[in-house]
Here is the input.
Amino acid sequence: MSEVPCPPRVLRDYSVLADGERGAVVDPEGRVVWLCAPRWHSDAVFSALIGGGGHFAWAPVDPWHVWGGTYEEGTLIRVHRWVSADSVGECRDALAMPASPDRLVLLRRLRVVQGSVRTRMELDPRPGFDALPMQEPRLEGGVWTATGGGLSMRLVGAPRATWDPRAGLRCDFRLDSGEQHDLVLELSTAATGQRLDPDELWARTEQEWRRAVPDCSALAAPRDARHAYAVLRGLTSSSGGMVAAATTSLPERANSGRSYDYRYTWLRDQSYAGLAVAAHGPHELLDTAVEFIAGRILADGDRVRPAYTVAGEPMPQQSALSLPGYPGGSDRIGNEAASQFQLDTFGEALQLFAAAAHHDRLTTDALNAVRVAVDAVERRWREPDAGLWELEERWWTHSRLSVVCGLRRVADFLHGAQGRRCAEIAESVLAETRRRCLHPDGYWRRAADDDGPEAALLVPLARGCMAADDASTVLTHARVEDRLAQDGYLYRFEHAGKPLGEAEGAFLLCGFHMALATDRLGDRVDSFRWFERTRAACGPPGLFAEEYDVRQRQLRGNLPQAFVHASLLECAARLSDASAPST
Here is the structure.
């Protein structure tokens, strides 16, 4: 294994660039330390994040400086900024858009704001998770080219660079105040010959972000809401699939074995994103979610998988690399959830289709997928499933209530016998779930064989599965808050023999769902308290991971976690309505 070129940083400090087809993770000093090419689930070209080789750095030579940065509003264009004793510089980074699945273009524009700056560029691509070095590097017409791992590389902007087989390309630049310089990196599955003009590429990228991300100024926390939408757009492929996160193997808990690959499309997660977008309006990401999920349900029926690649292909089973992994994590690729049955996937998909129908965006394929999903629920709702948290197969309460909610929502727009059938199935599922899972004291159990509190139950409560004044809604909400809340954050469930904060981090999806459920009960003030507390659990780039270590104020797990950004967006949309609680 090659020497690790970039020291690891705490997760809250990393930013992410994304163009829908892949994502790059950038450390606080502007080094790209993670990038898979050509697509999300492809092998990494830069894998320094999980202990491999490969990175793309462009930073001041003078070590006496401090870093900062920001995203340009409504985009995933990141501006890294550094200040030294006598100079200020900025490096503007983006993955060029519109993007192609077989070709990525990474843009870096250095600008000196004050003083003179000497910088060093290091480009060390190592395809195949550091297993396949680039071959045949050459400089022609001021453009560096090389090949390796099935990829062709071009770099524009560093004609004076030198190539070291052990360290890649290196070049020093000196710029004075007001000067700027561009680097353009292309990685593609075949030599393209396309123009790599930085001004043109930047203009098209800026235009695409303006087109793709709607105005969110009327929502609660408008800047954060728009940033959340930009994250969701950056994680959504032109094929329609939205990855759960850009990374793999970032630990939820140090050395606990809980490190997973999230570079795939979970149908539930994308349903959450589509529902969040629908709460704001009939925007593009609602249509892409409907199209992708309908396609998977039509193809696989009641054997639909929980997750796929963004191209709609089966997700590979979990395997290991030969890398050290991020500290406390591992080097896993693939995911064991590929073979699970998760009943609530159908429930969330049905709710998504109903939201699309509300906006008059339900396609013929989606309508056919509704019928397939209803048939699947009717055949399989009595079976144990792995549930929202992908645990052992049991009779999870949340899964049943999710499909009840979904069936009721589609019954509202399906007319005649079809609508009546959905309503009847919903009542049958609810009746049996009440019999098995409603505690004699009136609150919902976690599962038919488990009386514990469960934050997942807030999802159907927030979606209106039962009336707001139903005793089970009120009692379950109160019990979850009493047993699973600490310091204004919410945890998923209790772990036997371990305090909440020691067993795992607070689960940010649950915090936002608590805000929605609390609003449904009519307490707008307390709902905002949950919303504001939960949206504070991010690092300086404003990105959320799955979990938050409250005591250490650190992110835990892969990032950026799509369903957390989706739930922030939904809260911002629903809490912006001053006239009524969320429904």
